[in-house]
Design a protein that fits this description.
3 domains, two-stranded antiparallel sheet, globular
């Protein structure tokens, strides 16, 4: 997987895992108007189907999220169309307009239609976060004016470089996206610096995860983001991992080193060590498979928690009993689930198929 693809994947994962925190950090006023007692519903598959990605141009991440408005008598939902833009594209504002209109045309329901429990769509809101390093690039509006015709499309747009102006506030902010922002900003600042300085930056950000007293899962999630955003040569990467392991032992919190390079390596460090110690090819392959299987299970449990809440013990037990192939299939199918019932039906079908 290329560096760009890994960074793209890191943004997608962190948004899926911490979308309420993302909104609270970058768009706090909007966050206050959303009913977070209803889990956000990610409609990325619908977004892919609606647009021809081949003609959309190169970009970082786009998301489509269904949320409910707070304090309404009947359920009213909105679609948040979100773009994480990683380079200066002169046609970006135009694309935001086109996407917004097509989504509105696809999903809008006139008042009075579908007023039941599913509610109705109120608006399609487009938001942008610009992660590039160009200080002069900050699109916020698409405008056409000719012969008395005028169209103006304005969208909230956050520029990550602006956060450099108040670094102390970032350091004091406990929101996970403060760390995310710091990692991206440091990546831009250190791009032309010696690799040793990037190593120091990466170690400093990783230690900060522990100093902020994040939960074990938050530390692992944010570590993975930092790890993909700030890249090191192999020899310094080894030094970085050794230093993280040493630091964890000192703090008695072996979080990151227990799951090393999830999604990028074949398995956990323990699995590889098992294969080496036994000195047998079978042991090595078994270790890799066990590590990969455990890593995929952790990711699936995290996705399910974000979408549908905590899972019952019997569901977690059923997931733990799945094979590696089944977990990989579930990893694809989960994005099509709209409720906990879909998961239960999928598990029942797997049980019947393998009974």
């Amino acid at each position: 997987m290329s560096v760009a693809a890994e960074q793209d994947s890191s943004w997608k994962e962190i948004l899926d895992q911490y979308f309420p925190e993302f909104m609270a950090f970058f768009f706090p006023k909007i966050h206050q108007d959303i009913d977070w007692s209803r889990n956000p519903e990610f409609l990325d598959k619908e977004l892919e189907q609606l647009f021809n990605e081949g003609n959309a141009g190169r970009r970082l991440v786009d998301k489509l999220v269904k949320v409910y408005r707070l304090g309404t008598e009947e359920p009213i939902w909105l679609l948040i169309h979100l773009e994480i833009q990683g380079y200066a594209d002169p046609s970006f504002a135009q694309r935001m307009f086109i996407y917004n209109y097509r989504l509105y045309d696809r999903y809008f329901q006139p008042k009075g239609i579908d007023p039941g429990s599913a509610g109705r769509l109120d608006k399609v809101i487009s938001l942008a976060v610009l992660t590039d390093g160009n200080k002069r690039y900050h699109p916020k509006r698409f405008h056409i004016k000719e012969w008395g015709f005028e169209l103006s499309f304005k969208f909230p747009s956050v520029k990550l470089l602006k956060y450099n102006e108040n670094w102390a506030a970032l350091e004091a902010n406990p929101n996970p996206f403060a760390i995310v922002t710091m990692a991206v900003l440091r990546m831009h600042q250190d791009k032309r610096k010696p690799p040793e300085e990037r190593l120091s930056t990466k170690l400093g950000l990783t230690r900060r995860l522990y100093e902020r007293h994040y939960s074990r899962q938050e530390i692992i999630d944010l570590y993975r983001f930092i790890d993909n955003i700030i890249r090191l040569p192999e020899e310094l990467d080894q030094e970085f991992r050794q230093e993280v392991t040493r630091y964890e032992k000192e703090e008695r919190m072996p979080y990151v080193s227990s799951i090393e390079r999830l999604g990028r390596e074949d398995g956990l460090k323990e699995g590889l060590e098992k294969g080496r110690q036994e000195g047998k090819q079978e042991g090595r392959q078994e270790g890799k498979q066990e590590g990969r299987q455990e890593g995929i299970l952790i990711l699936i449990l995290r996705q399910l928690k974000r979408r549908f809440g905590e899972q019952a013990p019997e569901i977690e037990q059923a997931l733990s009993a799945l094979s590696l192939v089944q977990l990989e299939e579930l990893g694809e199918a989960i994005f099509d689930f709209s409720s906990q019932t879909d998961l239960a039906l999928w598990l029942q079908a797997q049980a019947k198929a393998h009974s």
